[in-house]
Specification:
By secondary structure, the chain is of the alpha/beta class. It has two domains: about 20-180, 2-Layer Sandwich (Alpha-Beta Plaits); about 195-450, TIM Barrel, CATH 3.20.20. About 45% of the residues lie in helices and about 20% in strands. The chain has 17 helices and 17 strands. The protein has helices at about 10-25, 35-45, 65-70, 70-90, 115-130, 155-175, 185-205, 245-255, 255-275, 300-310, 325, 330-345, 360-365, 375-380, 385-400, 410-420, 435-450; strands spanning about 50-60, 95-100, 105-110, 130-135, 135-140, 145-150, 180, 210-220, 225-235, 240, 285-290, 315-320, 345-350, 370, 405, 425, 435. Strands 8-9-11-12-13-14-15-16 form an eight-stranded mixed β-barrel, surrounded by four helices. α16 (about 410-420) links the parallel β15 and β16 (about 425). α3 crosses α4, α9 runs parallel beside α10 and α10 (about 300-310) packs parallel to α12 (about 330-345). The protein is elongated and about 115 Å long. The termini are far apart. Bound molecules: ligand C2E and magnesium ion (2 copies). One magnesium ion binds near residues 350, 351, 371 and 407. One magnesium ion binds near residues 228 and 288.
């Protein structure tokens, strides 16, 4: 008898390793995306008529910051620990997978009622709410999550995943740290944004963006001391569109960078034109900057070049930023703001009081002007609380030697309150709505002749 023996253990090990690589994530040992898709397919195919399956996609909030501040090794440690807690919280009721960097998925296959899903979501929340200890450093983690349900939100696995993703994006847009369920409206919204992005790209090529100008006045006598340039889109079929319909998409797509530069170019040209007509005080033109512009190639260089090419004096330009830009306290933002300030332009904080930043940033960044958000001005005269806050903000700005501008002044009552708080500057419909450039030129000319000072400027009809 002849026998052949062969040691197959190495071969088996290789097969097992290949299987692991194809189906599992090497860091957390959780099933990967490919595995999840197959598992979901099998689960939904097996599901009986009355069964439903829940898919939750979870994304850790600001994970990049943990990576940046504590290092990638601790970042990895955190992800492994999150994976463990998710598995434990599920009590073998389904599957936990890792989809990507800080994105996880949970599938609940034996759902009997929506209350089941609620219970699982609560379980996840509790599991992740305790601090994580990374080499003894306690770290708190928030997460955003989106939920879709089989079969009501989709029959196919791709649909379920896309819809849970849409719900997740919605959760993020609501300020993160929350769980949202998919609603059909979300896909419609996503499609609409896609259409806006396509139109925007064409609009940039065709120069469809213009600036409207709203006067900024001295409260005591109504004299025009400046103007804010506000972007409008002359859409070929939808008419004139206000910025809230397109700035968000322009930021997401990065188109805000060329759009913002074009706006600044127009604003500089007009600042030169208007200041040449004025013999008394200079007129300052304020331009809004998006945080996205600070991530572009060379914001400072662009501003410098635009000032030079138009012959615009830096003190005629104010750049408006929002508190959100300062939130991350990044040295790169600080450096750019300092360089801009050194050019001689002034910096204003727009919509002040609506952000969540620590007030200490007011002294760390080169800020010249505070614009008190309209929400504080709106209720002056009705709500005592608004008066207290508006007054405190005015005092805060003034004690830091900043100019303070009240936004959205519409009535004489609001004006009188602001004067009583010794607020000096204002902007609002009471003094003029945003108007086309020629109308603003005419308004300036009329103001130069006090006898003709009666006018009621109006804004063109705005679509939507
Ligand atoms: P913002 O910079 O805070 O501009 C003030 C907004 O308040 C303007 O809305 C203006 O029309 C409105 N407003 C002014 N006075 C009153 C008032 O008395 N009552 C009421 N109800 N509203 C008043 P608009 O023009 O729709 O602009 C909205 C936002 O879009 C701006 O808020 C700004 O954040 C953004 N935006 C506008 N133009 C640009 C731009 O060129 N670049 C960037 N990045 N953002 C822009
Ligand atoms: Mg503004
Ligand atoms: Mg504002």
């Amino acid at each position: 008898m002849l026998g052949v023996t062969q040691d197959v253990s190495a071969h088996k090990r290789l097969l097992r390793q290949t299987h692991e690589l194809e189906n599992y994530d090497s860091l957390t040992r959780l099933p990967n995306r490919a595995f999840l898709y197959r598992w979901l397919t099998a689960t939904t195919e097996r599901a009986q008529e009355e069964d439903s399956v829940g898919l939750i996609i979870i994304d850790l909030d600001h994970f990049q910051r943990i990576n940046d501040s504590l290092g990638h090794r601790r970042g990895d440690q955190l992800l492994s620990e999150v994976a463990n807690r998710l598995k434990t919280s599920l009590h073998d009721r389904g599957l936990v997978a890792r989809l990507g960097a800080d994105e996880f998925a949970v599938v609940i296959s034996d759902m009997r009622s929506p209350a089941d899903l609620q219970a699982v979501s609560e379980g996840i929340k509790t599991a992740l709410s305790e601090p994580f200890f990374l080499d003894k450093t306690p770290v708190m983690v928030n997460f955003s999550a989106g939920v879709s349900l089989y079969p009501s939100d989709g029959q196919l696995v791709e649909e379920l995943v896309t819809h849970a993703d849409a719900a997740l994006n919605h959760a993020k847009s609501l300020g993160r740290n929350n769980i949202q369920f998919y609603a059909r409206r979300l896909t419609e919204k996503a499609q609409e944004r896609l259409q806006v992005a396509t139109d925007l790209r064409q609009g940039v090529g065709r120069d469809e963006f213009v600036l409207f100008y709203q006067p900024k006045v001295r409260l005591e006598d109504g004299a025009i001391i400046g103007t804010e340039a506000l972007m409008r889109w002359r859409h070929p079929s939808k008419g004139l569109m206000a910025p809230d319909r397109f700035i968000g998409v322009a930021e997401e797509t990065g188109l805000i960078i060329p759009m913002g530069a074009a706006a600044l170019r127009m604003a500089c040209a007009n600042a030169v034109r208007w200041n040449c007509l004025r013999h008394d005080t200079p007129l300052k033109v304020a331009v809004n900057l998006s945080p996205r512009q600070f991530q572009g190639e060379n914001l400072v260089g662009t501003v410098k070049a635009l000032l030079a090419e138009s012959g615009c004096q830096p003190q005629w330009i104010e750049l408006e930023i929002t508190e959100g830009l300062l939130l991350d306290d990044s040295p790169l933002i600080l450096a750019q703001l300092n360089e801009l300030h050194d050019l001689g332009v002034t910096i204003a904080i727009d919509d002040f009081g609506t952000g969540y930043s620590a007030l200490s940033y007011l002294t760390r960044f080169p800020i010249d002007t505070l614009k008190v958000d309209r929400s504080f001005v709106r209720d002056l005269g009705h709500k005592a609380q608004s008066a207290v806050l508006a007054k405190a903000i005015v005092a805060l700005g003034q004690s830091l030697q900043m100019e303070v501008v009240a936004e959205g002044v519409e009535t004489a009552t609001q004006r009188d309150h602001l004067l009583a708080f010794s607020c000096k500057l204002a902007q609002g419909y009471m003094y003029g709505k945003p108007m086309p450039e020629d109308e603003f030129t005419a308004l300036l000319a009329r103001h130069a002749q006090p006898s003709l000072q009666k006018e009621h400027p109006h804004e063109e009809d705005i679509a939507g």
